[in-house]
Amino acid sequence: MKRIAVVEDEAYMRDELLSMLEKAGYLALEVTAFEDAAEQLSVLTPDLVILDLNLPEISGFQICRDLKQKTFIPVLVLTSRDQLADELHALRLGADEYLTKPCRKERLLARITNILKRYEGRTNLLEGQGFLLDRVTYTLYINSTSVVLPRNQGKLLEALLMAGNNLATANQLCRALWDTTEFIDENALQVNLTRLKKTMAGLGMKQKVISVRGAGYRLETKDTR
Fold first, then answer.
1. What is the helix (H) or strand (E) element at residue 95, kind and residue range?
2. CA dist., res. 88 & res. 95, Å (int)
């Protein structure tokens, strides 16, 4: 079941949207704390976000920008703001669709279906900070380009992404590379990790592989200050 998050401050409109989505066969989620909405959505990882622009505490434009900088979650803007300048601004920030209120239910559901279809091909993709990794071909999509990683580097990056905020242990990485943890020289793992680090640095990626002595490895965003 596809999961759709609604970011809307008007209670009546929010309830109408949630009810409509549930009747259409979607799992509807609501976000009502708007100041950190982008962070909440990054954790929820819905299949689609329906986003209002006129929100308390923070603009929907800011949420759209922050969310698109962190994730590849599609965004459908649904707003009473009907000025072309607002629509163009939202689209430049990464919004996938822009509809104005009032909007017929049939039109909204059709646009939702179209967006979800466009993103269906991403089922094999893992998401990192500013990039996607195809876990079948180990193709890395970054900065409007694509790079096919050597298989071992792809396997390591996949394992690190799957670990999320947790540490990936040396045993887990060895299993990802060689499907075993027996008789593997630690140096062999380090050689492969060094190659991955070099590749990531060469591509200017926002994340890098960090070693936590005696515990494991994780992806960490570079400090750009």
1. none
2. 9
Token pair listed for 188: 């062999």
How far is residue 86's CA from residue 98's CA, in Å, rounded to a whole number?
A: 9
Rg, the chain, Cα only: 20
Task: Indicate left, alpha or beta for 204 from its phi (over 0: left) and psi (-120 to 50: alpha).
Answer: left
Amino acid making up residue 193:
L
Token match 């949207």: residue? 17
Which amino acid is located at 151 in the chain? R
Residue 173's CB: how many other CB atoms inside 10 A? Answer: 22
Q: What is the pTM of this model?
A: 0.61
The answer to whether 49 touches 77, Cβ cutoff 8 Å, is: no
Instruction: Please tell me the distance from the alpha carbon of residue 173 to that of residue 40, in angstroms, as a whole number.
Output: 29
Query: Which residues pair with residue 193 across a beta bridge?
Result: none
Closest by CA to 79, choosing from 49, 53, 47, 111, is 53
pLDDT in tens, the chain (225 residues): 899 999 999 999 999 999 999 999 999 999 999 999 998 898 888 999 999 999 998 999 999 998 887 777 899 999 999 999 999 999 999 899 999 999 999 999 999 999 998 887 666 778 888 888 888 889 898 877 889 999 999 999 999 998 887 899 988 898 888 887 665 677 899 999 999 999 999 999 989 999 998 889 999 986 644
Phi, psi for residue 63 in degrees, rounded to 5: -60, -45
